[in-house]
Task: inverse folding
């Protein structure tokens, strides 16, 4: 890449104030939230303000065959926005306006650089609700959430980001600006490019606008905690809850090591016999939530819960969530290093997953802590270790992925593949991988859009 | 195509009893449910029983460059399964087993040839519920529903077929058997081929198994009817209902001509002043449905409804639905010919759509009847005409599509493009069409899978 030439072209195309080549800028955009850190410093960082700018940037990059790295807040955990081969980081920071809240159609039209939390607060002012809530929602952007198809605790009831994207304006690798999806609630006109692009981690198109579905804000919420002597009982309660027609808004599971860590850290009175803890939240109409949380806790009692606590006040609710929120600081104290794998299995396989993970941890003599969104089978497996145990951990993680796939699960429920999990994708998708590569080549023949992510082209 | 050679290859590959070449068979599979009838008699009709058979059939067809027409019940309305260029019809009739109802994970694994209604009845025996309900559900198949991404009245609350497909086993054009999607509730591992294939009308892959999400069967249902002096009032009530946090299970709108036709046909006492009629159904927990239907009717009252009827008994509920069900037989009486276009607009644009359709009908001096799933903006526009008015109707339909797109809608909410609506797809998807074609070429380079559907390859 002839950086000076490309810089000149870009400055002519979108204005020199939007093109940065100083080492300060380049270093600041060299990494994302992935624990293992940055891979390469980009050659340029650009800040388009509209789809025309993006189209010009991509046209130049396509002509010159230069890598483009679309970037929201850079908070991804698998290297999705990291510039691994040099090239141009294209930030959405200056495309950060909410364009229209459409109260009649329960929808919002937004630019990609808007922070998810900010969008949620704005629509809530109108009594509306945008459910997706990845842990990063206070700083990650809508565009990044769409590129990664972000989830979150609430997705057990409300679905993932994909379920809220109705229409996208995108720019393809050749600079073509197009709309995919529909502002209508349903449409079967042509191929569903919208759902193909959502979750494609910036490798198929650059998102420049999103028309997102909203729902009315739920009237009321109820929260409870159930403590089980056996993890299998907690897992069974999760499965039975759905059969009892309770779809919880959140259904968080903590295993024995999680409970011990939280208790040591926060001293909130969790019993030492506890091997499983469920935090269950329901929401909906004011007149039904008490009945729903009672039903959920009845399911827990029947599955073997020894203690049940239903929050009667906002303070009690906060106390219950405190156990969950203490987890991250609590386990950070356990060992100097941590790796968090984001696996997901069919709900009924959660006990097998946790049992198998314990066996793997025992085999490699490693500390493991499991917790997560049990309602949708998404368990965060955390190995806690000393620096010298790195290689052991890598082997253990590979076994966890094998186990997950044997249980008909997926190697990533929320975080994506990026460059970190490329090795494991073929294990999961098998023969379909070649078809994914064929689509990539068809839409981005020069491989300029986020190259080296999800898979390498052979 | 050398029919004798291909017939021989196929008989060797999958058994001669599964390959039919008699004119009786070929004529019986020459058409689908599209009103304008069949286009071409196929050369062969084959009946695979598993994915290995399908893989062999597609491998032979790919080698010989022969068109393949995947076919469920052949009930599509836009020619999706019609064999328009000769070639081989591949029927899923012999792949009609429900393989597993997974009660723990609320899912069902099925072959594609199972009739949707049969699947619904089977899962209901376990207290489970498969919501998608296209009008054809008593005879159309799951595979066909997936290929067309079928909707139905209930999709306003429960979503379309796509929202219930978790994983598919498919065969690609080159014979590759692969799984797409995941049995886990969420997965972000690689490209979302599953949602690309759903709704692709058999042009990208042949579906051989489907793992479908189920939900617990709702405990109770309530039904009501509201009659409005003005169509705008009825449309406004639909929009306001969502703001009042009532998501109806069904929300069917009848316009003035529909009401008059039903009244003339069934004499059920609908008032002559009525220009809009809403049938609203809610479902959910037994303890909340009375409150919900009251809320919905309060919204209707405020929007201007003159008469409200909430069904107190199953008999009264049937009476309300009788108005809706009488529509098809009632309008058939009006004129010798009918064309039903399945357009969809954002909910708030329904009044503009209906007003615009009336103007178009007036301009061409045609009779038009509008009704449909107002909750999701999906209006069935029916022109009723004499045979000699055919050409006028065609022009009017084109104007209806233009109007729909001006209102940011879609030319097909449920029925698909097939070969009937190919002309109108570019109007809606614009620049994205070339990207759809690129994907088709990448996955099916010899264009054997349902060629000539959705678009023609140039």
Result:
């Amino acid at each position: 890449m002839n950086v000076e030439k490309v810089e000149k072209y870009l400055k002519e195309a979108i204005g020199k104030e939007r093109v940065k080549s100083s080492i300060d800028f380049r270093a600041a955009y060299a990494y994302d939230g992935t624990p293992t850190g940055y891979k390469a410093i980009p050659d340029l960082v650009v800040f388009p303000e509209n789809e025309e700018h993006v189209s010009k940037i991509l046209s130049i990059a396509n002509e010159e065959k230069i890598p483009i790295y679309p970037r929201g807040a850079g908070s991804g955990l698998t290297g999705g926005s990291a510039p691994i081969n040099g090239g141009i980081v294209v930030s959405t920071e200056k495309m950060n306006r909410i364009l229209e809240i459409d109260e009649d159609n329960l929808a919002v039209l937004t630019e990609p650089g808007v922070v998810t939390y900010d969008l949620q607060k704005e629509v809530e002012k109108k009594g509306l609700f945008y459910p997706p809530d990845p842990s990063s929602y206070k700083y990650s952007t809508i565009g990044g959430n769409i590129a990664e198809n972000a989830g979150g605790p609430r997705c057990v009831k409300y679905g993932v980001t994909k379920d809220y994207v109705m229409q996208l304006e995108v720019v393809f690798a050749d600079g073509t600006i197009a709309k995919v999806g529909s502002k209508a609630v349903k449409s079967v006109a042509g191929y569903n490019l919208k759902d193909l692009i959502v979750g494609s981690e910036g490798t198929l198109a650059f998102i420049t606008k999103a028309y997102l579905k909203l729902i009315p804000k739920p009237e009321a919420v109820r929260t409870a905690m159930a403590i089980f002597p056996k993890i299998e009982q907690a897992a069974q309660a999760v499965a039975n809850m759905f059969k009892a027609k309770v779809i919880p808004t959140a259904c968080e599971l903590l295993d024995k090591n999680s409970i011990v860590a939280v208790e040591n850290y926060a001293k909130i009175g969790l019993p030492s016999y506890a091997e499983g803890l469920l935090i269950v939240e329901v929401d909906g109409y004011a007149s039904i939530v008490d009945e729903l949380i009672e039903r959920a806790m009845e399911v827990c009692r029947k599955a073997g819960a020894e203690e049940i606590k239903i929050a009667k006040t906002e303070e009690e609710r906060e106390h219950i969530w405190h156990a969950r929120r203490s987890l991250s600081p609590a386990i950070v104290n356990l060992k100097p290093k941590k790796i968090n794998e984001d696996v997901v299995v069919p709900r009924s396989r959660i006990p097998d997953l946790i049992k198998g993970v314990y066996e793997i941890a025992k085999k490699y003599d490693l500390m493991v802590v499991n917790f997560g969104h049990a309602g949708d089978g998404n368990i965060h497996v955390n190995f806690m270790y000393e620096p010298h145990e790195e290689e052991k951990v890598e082997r253990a993680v590979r076994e966890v992925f094998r186990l997950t796939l044997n249980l008909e699960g997926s190697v990533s429920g929320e975080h994506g593949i990026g460059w970190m999990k490329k090795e494991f994708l073929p294990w999961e998708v098998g023969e379909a991988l070649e078809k994914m590569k064929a689509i990539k080549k068809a839409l981005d023949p020069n491989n300029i859009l986020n190259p080296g992510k999800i898979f390498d082209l052979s």
Summary: The longest strand of chain B covers residues 220-228. Chain B touches chain A through 90 residues (CB under 8 Å).
